[in-house]
């Protein structure tokens, strides 16, 4: 079995990311567990959001690092995050808001086989990407 990924994106998301990278340069994501805007995946120019020591790097989508808050990771560690895009305005600080679309997190539980591979993988906490 190949290594399961912790975060992936739909083709529509990847297409929107190309538009956003052309406008804003390198981007990054952060998924927190807060209310309101904080419960949506937020997309920022790289370096404009400070990654905490407990934040977990889940992987990349469209070449953009994707982090999740440490507490939120504890709740969602058994699920693969699937980043999608839907019509509407996103969070006021997330760069896709001006495009009339917003990012949305969907998820699915890992299979038993996938979880057996992932449960012992070391996690990367804190920022790896410099501004």
Overview of the molecule:
The protein has 131 residues and is an alpha/beta fold. The protein contains three helices and eight strands; from the N terminus they run βαββββαββαβ. It is globular and about 40 Å long.
Indicate the topology.
Layout: E1 7-9, H1 11-24, E2 27-31, E3 42-45, E4 56-61, E5 64-68, H2 70-76, E6 79-87, E7 101-109, H3 112-118, E8 124-125
Parallel strand pairs: 1-6, 2-5
Antiparallel strand pairs: 2-3, 4-5, 4-8, 6-7
Please tell me what the overall shape is: globular
Mean pLDDT equals 89
Mind describing the biggest β-sheet?
A: 5 strands, mixed
Q: Which structural class is indicated by helix and strand composition?
A: alpha/beta
CATH class: Mainly Beta
Number of strands: 8
Quickly describe the structure:
By secondary structure, this protein is of the alpha/beta class. It is 21% helix and 33% strand. It has one domain (7-124): Hypothetical Protein Aq_1857, Chain: A, CATH 2.60.300.
List keywords for this structure.
single chain; 131 residues; alpha/beta; Hypothetical Protein Aq_1857, Chain: A; 5-stranded mixed β-sheet; 3-stranded mixed β-sheet; 21% helix; globular
